Amino acid sequence: MIRTEGVADVTEETFEREVLGSDLPVLVKFTADWCGPCRQLAPVLGEIAREEAGRIRVVQLDVDRDPGVAVRFGVMATPTLMVFRAGEPVTSMAGARPKRKLLRELEEALALAQG
Q: Taking the complete model, does pTM exceed 0.90, yes or no?
């Protein structure tokens, strides 16, 4: 899996605890080693993980190694970014995007989740 500083790896075994049980909202990147756009997105997510550390946690899950979670949440493409809050998915976005656009989408998702 693509390693990115600040972005933790989760698996089917750790997903419940690390994502659904998190006190902070969690941005999950559903990824695969062969996915070019996933590689493009990695440094963007690393920056967001560092800059927004107190507001949102960023993790990644390899859909080839752990397909059960992807199937459970209807992930059909990589990269898919899904924000979870209080154990529930609040938004889903497919495809790579620039940092500015992703931050705007995350603000909307976090505002909706609080409202």
A: yes
